[in-house]
Structure of Contactin associated protein like 3:
Amino acid sequence: DELQHGAGLSNIRPVGAGGWSPLVSDRYQWLEVDLGERTKITAVATQGRYGSSDWLSSYLLMFSDSGHNWRQYRQEDSIGFFPGNSNADSVVQYKLQQPAVARFLRLLPLDWNPSGRIGLRLETYGCPYTSDVVSLRRGGGGLVYRLSPGTRRTSKEVVSLKFKTQRNSGTLLQAEGHEGSSLHLELQRGKLLLVKLSCCEAKLTPSSGPPRRLASLGSLLDDQHWHHVVLERRSTHLNLTVDKHTERVQLPAEFSQWDVEQGNVTFSCGESVSVAVTFPGPQSFLQMPWATPTTFRTWNKAGLLATFSLQQGGVAWLHLSDSRLQLLIHQGDKELIFPGVFAGSDLSDGQWHSVDLTSKRGHITISVDEEEGGVAHATPSFPISTGEGQVFFGGCPADADGPECRNLFDGFQGCMRLLTLDDRPVDLIAVQQRLLGNYSQLQIDMCGIMDRCSPSRCEHGGRCSQSWTVFHCNCSDSGYDGATCHSSVYEQSCEAYKHNGNTSGHFYIDVDGSGPIGPQLVYCNMTGNDTWMVIQHNNTELTRVRAPPGSSQHSVHFQYPSEEEQLQAAISQSEHCEQELSYHCRKSRLLNTLEGSPFSWWLGGPGPGRVQTYWGGAQPGSQQCACGLQGDCVDPEHYCNCDADRMEWTEDSGLLTHKPSLPVRSLVLGDVQRPGSEAAYRVGPLLCRGDRNFWNAAFFDKETSYLHFPTFHGELSADISFLFKTTASFGVFLENLGIKDFIRIELSSSTQVIFSFDVGNGPLEVRVESSVPLNDNRWHRVRAERNVKEATLRLDDLPVATQEAPADGHFHLQLNSQLFIGGTASRQKGFRGCIRSLQLNGVTLDLEERAKITPGVRPGCPGHCSSYGSLCQNQGRCTERENGFHCDCSLSAFSGVFCQTEVSASFKSGTSVRYTFKEVYEVSRNSSALPSSIYSDATLRGENVSLSFRTSQSPALLLYVSSYYREYLALLINKHGEDGLEVRYKLDSSREADVLRSSVKSVANGQLHTVSVSRLTDSVSLQILSSSSDSDDMDPDLARLGSQGFAGCLSVVHFNTISPLKAALLHPDSSPVSISGPLVQSSCGSAASANPYAAENTHHLISHSSTLDSAASIRLNGNTTPNVVFPAGVIAVVIFVMVTGMAVAARFLYRRKETYRNQEVKGVKREDSQDFPFNSRADSQNVSGENPKEFFM
């Protein structure tokens, strides 16, 4: 083999100790090997110079067919350097991941022993490579290949070739199909496209439409290097491979067989005669006598192409700005900016663009891509001349500080070629040998441009853009986020949304997270104990059957908004799915008999569905309806009601629950054409509940216990998400090892989680520190992601921790051992606690199934209320379930999945609700009685009453509490212009009532007010009146006030553990309530909010002996009232009134009446309210004749 070394003969150093060592040790040296012929090179080995301290610690490899136009070899499409030696004696061999085919090899030193010099012994491994080569010139050249008539056709056909070219467009191959259609493999803008042309398009008639693009692969294929193309037809699909990347294409039907008819190649395969130069970094520059750039290519939108001095003084800059070319000239105090050339304006697209800059008699012409018509002219008002002095391309020297070179812009990163000097091409090889000009940090005789977006690392439809050094993914509208659009922004199920605190509504769910199945829009119904996912289709209404004329059957197809794979994944993930199927018939048979062929059937399941001959409510394959399974069909001889063939209307309805048969795709109804036959059908929406993946959990009770699974494959992108809860301070959640690579997530302390891995660049860690302990036995969520750009770690809702990946490092994660969950291969630092909903790249690991057969690990993990109990609002109680939790709203005046929905209704003057309390003996006979029930003879030592109201009526009685002995509590709105809130207490029938006034006025203003009353003494009953309520036992002036009725609205009425209004509205049949008049449920309380200037009034009630027993306060908008002393009696009443300005609908008015036995109460001093227009004296002789165990609203 012939050796050459550069740059220039002056660099040759006598080799006395064995090996190559240049005279100057810098990064501009190289060793070139001529193998004599094209060779398939599979490995290289290096060794230091014999008997010396000279060796290389890293280097680059270049390959070429001609000794020019070098190409850098890269590992994993990214890493450009090879690690070298650590001493002069050992041999380090590297097998090339992809063999290189070339005649010339060039090694460029990067780093060497700092105590020695560049020194090298080199060996290459490979074998001769021979192939037939044809050179096709621009014009009409081509090859034709036709199968002979006797050639046997096969289901697999392969066409393989290699090509290289300098031109970025041309037809490479054409295959003829049936009916004149053809497939074309074309090079367009350096990319290889597979397009289909119809017969008219192939003939290029005026009516031809745009070709149909089937595939696009590769980029920068006009680099004059060999590229390998393989087309492999397998039956109805085609695998197109360009170099190492393959795309699968579904072939049109007319190409089930094909002939390769011709290759009308319109580019030249001759060797390159131009020498390119690469500006790899911002410090790169090339200094020349006056010369002009001819062509360039780059990914950067900005950068300096050239700067030069003017003859009259001044400086000019030719630079890229926002992907457009601009000329900026400074001359003295004058400044002229030429706005740029807009033809081919996207000059940062990686394509070669031509530039021509000329100046004659003060007239400057700038041309960009002149062949495409992009010419701009500009004539300044003062003369400008160029053509003398130095030109700096790409940037200025680092030490340049004078007028010779001033760079106002970023340096250029890209490639240039065809530079001209006095209208002659610049000899860049002479520049490389330091015989012409000056340069720094350049790569000469090669274009080192890379397309980081081909293939795109952006997943899930993310749009890739790039600069010279990095790529960026635009994830907008994709439903995914992260550096490569890898992780879904949506939850995996309705169940997951519920546990984030959401209520019913439409949500996007992504059943496989970062997997290939996209998000789908569903409705999540969270109103009941179970959370249901609802997927509609195009017809869920009851539809009358009308068979088309001349047909004996009526068929209908149901279309779902979700795609096939989305539907099946959602069904598979759910614990239970169902779909209603009903048939209403009048002399229209359905399934006939078990032995006969069915008149009707439906198709359900994956794809178009499979024929099903059973009906809703029956078992698969039974050819029955629900009544046949239950034995109650109208005709015992048949298994469906409709099969009785009667003139009366009947129906067969039920739920389909066999998941493999869902959803219903089509319905075929057969007996609909006979005279007198009438029918209607209904197929309900698909309903699914439960999430088998969300609650899939395992409990690890020892540090030495673990679960193991097959190796995790996340070479380029890996995301891991799970929930954990523990009382331990440390433990490894997950670990997977390779020979050198690994991935691990662990709890390193009670407040820190670490995500660590190694892909060949050395260990990398991402940490998240929590301000609260993580070993609190509550669920915490961990989400880790690693891709070619960065690694991220999320813990609960804390800020994301990010660690960027090395720019030119390894990025393939290569693992080969088992995946350990909850422990490590060494059985040290294992995790003690629960791990739940573990997903790796969108695939859920079945922890429960594996735990069933693993010692030291138990399936499932109870105890969810500690984490999710805070979601239950308004006195709702969290109750544990096997999978999840439930908010028990029985003790709350609210309803809804989290007891968050206000129960509100409008009352009119004729409306009343009567609530009857249960007798003690009734409860003893009914074991299902709610624990919140209050019994008629119970003695209450205190009560808590709350309600919200809105009214414009004044005066009005809002609340009335009375005992069997005429003691009472009343909440009312008084009159006389103030419309203030007033509370009256009477705890001794022999004394007058005590009046507590609020300083807040005008509460009858149509706005929303919320009131809470708490008493901490004896038993009471509660009554809120409408005009139809009986009032025989009420204080007369309150009775007169109550007789006026209440026009307004009440909501969230609560008395101790009873919510009578909620019972009347939501459970009227199962609750002891009776309703008269129109009671209309309303949403009037949904926008209740507190007034920001609420104040508190306090009123103390004291016995005759002046002993303070307890306190009462009215919390309203206003000021504090003075204390007042009353005779004996122990009460504490707190009333909260919050005023809002929001306009919301009406609240409920309710009246409740309960009798009870009161403890002996001492007399209370009277204080009448002068603002109240009614007499407050009670008629002690009037005794109510109504049932004393009733409660009116």
Observations:
- The domain at 696-858 is CATH 2.60.120.200 (Jelly Rolls).
- The longest strand covers residues 92-112.
